[in-house]
Amino acid sequence: IAYTVFAPVLGLLGDRYNVRVLLTLFCAILGLGTFLMSYSSSIVQAILFFALAGIGSSACWAPVVALAQRWVSDKRRGTALAFMDIGSSFGIVGTSAAVPLSM
């Protein structure tokens, strides 16, 4: 829910402010929320920290796409966005595969 609420807000902020600063700030928020989830001692704390991580992760798509579009020429934009999408899929699959291997 937090991701869904904040993603459009981050898209608008990314248009107005420095995307690199927003990404740095919200990745730190994502990391903090994820870190704090590991120390939650109640379901309420876990939900709050998960929401904090969701707010942080909301900066991980729309501003990144905007940044990629600014960096890449019109001719290569589709390829760049495709590789960006592939990279995020590999990240999801890679972490899913790594968890059983680490046990």
UniProtKB/TrEMBL annotation:
Gene3D superfamilies reported for this sequence: MFS general substrate transporter like domains
GO cellular component, one term: endoplasmic reticulum membrane
Ranges that cross the membrane: 21-40, 46-68, 80-101
Localisation: Endomembrane system
GO molecular function: glucose 6-phosphate:phosphate antiporter activity
Domain Major facilitator superfamily (MFS) profile: 1-103
Name of the molecule in the record: Major facilitator superfamily (MFS) profile domain-containing protein
Organism field: marine sediment metagenome
